[in-house]
């Protein structure tokens, strides 16, 4: 059956991540995380599309105090001290849901500690209590690019199977602590990013590896097992918990009707959807066998792993969607970049200030594709436009470009719901300005709320409402009917 609009209990809101937003990296008993080692590289000095990967030597220099770099993710935009003000702003917009992450190193400073840090647990208690005061449902990511640095240095992150137990200890601790405050949980943010930035996705250092893809997929396997066992644990602690996986989805189109392009697009989509196939279907798809063989990847499994994956699949599938990408079998093509992905330029699409292609119709296609593949509820937990914002003399910020981007995507979400897709909710990315994940910039802004801070950490951190703030308030009030 199709419907004419969003469900009455549709979860409208916004999304953040602790390592980009929270700050207070050395307060409250928090340990260092992998994100605390990521430095800001000005655009003119970058050699690639992002500046995420960190080497063992760089970490050593940073810990010895020899680095002169700045580390914006250590400070974010100070949610740690301003959570009451920020949640009040979200409530003013009418948020039904607020996606945040718990910083693992704030709860277990080294990752493998036997006892949790009570001060860290108490902080998230206060955050969730504040959400509850306004009737805002927290959507909590357990691991959002925030591996405790101790696990990277002592175990090489998720390449070591022992990290599964450390993660389960962490998950059990927060599940029991917040079992009456949080219903919706995500295990790993954009779990497929491990193949593009192993350090970011799994705390893995690869500079000494003969085959970095081997390390990436082995780490992913350990995360799959951890995710399944976490789902089992969640259902035992509170059967009302809803557990989802999270994928960085970039739907790939063939550039032309050339069968080689069509095959290449199919292959890229399979590599992307492999991660949700395991989470939602509970098994490794056969199409990966040839890929693993050709890339000399050998997944080490323990007895019982396959049964664990099959028994504890996720309740819903969440994903980020910023753009689609086109691929070509030809080499001499104009390239475009995106959320750690890359492709060839699609002549039918506009691009953002950062060169990301804008494809609202692609979101409808993606929603239909995912729902027909899995028949599980979907949740869009990241979508938005990174852009330069100008503060006018009177303090106003006219971000019509952001409103236009969001409007067009929400229109296509509604079309997908009419198509029969079961869509739980929508949390636009970076609802309050935060530090960019891929570039550690502040100037690349996504929010409805402006934060006075520049790329180098200068500014008052004062919050102010953009035009999109008032527009999104209308969208939520009308349950997506008033998009004008």
TrEMBL record:
UniProt superkingdom: Bacteria
Molecular function in Gene Ontology: 6-phospho-beta-glucosidase activity
EC number(s) reported in the record: 3.2.1.86
PROSITE patterns according to UniProt: GLYCOSYL_HYDROL_F1_1, GLYCOSYL_HYDROL_F1_2
Primary enzyme class: hydrolase
List of catalytic residues: 382
Key words of the record: Glycosidase, Hydrolase
InterPro entries reported in the protein's UniProt record: GH, GH_1_N_CS, Glyco_hydro_1, Glyco_hydro_1_AS
PANTHER family reported in the protein's UniProt record: 6-PHOSPHO-BETA-GLUCOSIDASE ASCB-RELATED (PTHR10353:SF122), GLYCOSYL HYDROLASE (PTHR10353)
Family to which this protein belongs: Belongs to the glycosyl hydrolase 1 family.
Protein name stated in the entry: 6-phospho-beta-glucosidase
Source organism (scientific name): Marinilactibacillus psychrotolerans
Name of the gene this protein is made from: ascB
